[in-house]
Amino acid sequence: MRYARLLLAALFVLSLLPAVSAGAAVLDLSEAVSVATPIDESVSSPNMTHVANVEWDFSLRDAERSTPDIAGGTDVEFATIDGRDYAVAGTYSNGLQIIDITDPEAPALVSQYHCDVLQGDVQVFTREEVDGTDTVTRTYATYAVEGGSSNRAPSQCFADAGVTADAGTLFIDISTPTAPEAVGFARIVEGTHNQSVHPDGEYMYNSNSGGCGGCIEVIDIRDLSNPTEVMRIESTSATGEDSHDITFSADGTRAYSAAIDVTMIIDTTDPAAPTVISSIVDPAVTLHHQSDPVTIGDREFVIINDELAGAAGNEVCPGGGLHVWEITGDMEADPQKVGAFFTPEVTVREGAGTGVSVSGIGVVTCTSHVFRIYEEQEKLVIGWFGAGVHVIDLSGLADVPVAVSAGVLGQSVGVGMEEVGFFRFNNSDTWSAKVMEWDGDGSAYIFADDQTRGFDVYHFDNTAETAENPGTWMSPTAALERLDTLLASGFVPKQYLICDLTLGRAQLSQ
């Protein structure tokens, strides 16, 4: 997510200041790697290559308005239809994009569905449906409409659904990829920031990330022409925050809700009547953005990414990291933190264009964002905004000490996660990065939806030399101390920061 960028003129003035306010401490990034190179240049590990790019066509959006804050890609999902592979990519205000990726090195945009909304988060699900006397498989995409973002020029998606533009979730039939068509709409007063369809395809859990006063709406979508709210899950957030993102377990018996200041583990064995099992409050996390489960060896974990500053533009790189809690056995009811991971520190060049531009100067965003875990390969692939795309090895989690009674102040040792591959351009602003299919040797094409670049395809070669710098695995205590150091420097979550690259360090200011 990106929170609304406010007071940009004031931010621009602040960005010209040479130093922090008097008495403020400085976060030392003297060892950071400088990437002050031309905007079209890149840096990567030996095992990562860039193979293709599809730039988004902004003609539909630009014909209606020109808004600097409305950028490009958001989330990306996949579908195989009639023997061909497709990426289904969301955008800010620029509609649903469907790309044929059957040949990953020659992706082709096959349709751009006009839908002038935010957030544009997309999920894909399939159903067996009766069509006359035949049973057919239909593929659908859900498309998120935040409150207030539908009050724009009329969009084809709302016209096809036969509804007036409003906040909620659109259901788009993409069974014919060249001719997507909205066939239903769940009108949700508080809007949709993200949504997740239960594996049974009959219920959708809505995350509005601010609006319902601390809840998750459970929507019956068995009849897409008439979605119906059946109940609300009350958030355990101490401040009444709503869910930001939800991930279901593969078998559908659990949901993991990242709800800004808490992660909830929910029993969804009956998706129409879920119950909360436990909650995770982590003082080292500023914003619970996404929480996903993973089993490594005989141990179960949930990985929470911290979207530092709400991705509003922070220039601390790597920003928020990945925090790991064990939920094996009885620990599901009482999760225990085992550590946290941060990618290598870099100094993203000034004006890289990865954040909102003010008078030609870009506000750089760098923090962990949308990721996907691949349990069989023991890998996590993630978009890290200005830091590009990263591949992280999770195999070490099998051997980290069990923190049964240590909790968040525990001192775990070992190395739970290591970076094995990365690629970033100097104008990267990677929202999401995912793999559709892995090769037998552990190699894969990675598909990324980027705010400034559009749709990128990378190749990860698992047989080649890995990244030189594995990143940093920290104990729970060290992760908390890291955040304390950042805050002591004057940085306030969801606010901005001043970065003087000539000093080789980030200077933080309220």
From TrEMBL:
Gene3D superfamilies on file: YVTN repeat-like/Quinoprotein amine dehydrogenase (2.130.10.10)
InterPro entries registered for this protein in UniProt: LVIVD, WD40/YVTN_repeat-like_dom_sf
UniProt xrefs under Pfam families: LVIVD
Keyword set, alphabetical order: Signal
Signal peptide residue numbers: 1-24
Record's protein name: Putative secreted protein
Species whose genome carries this gene: Euzebya pacifica
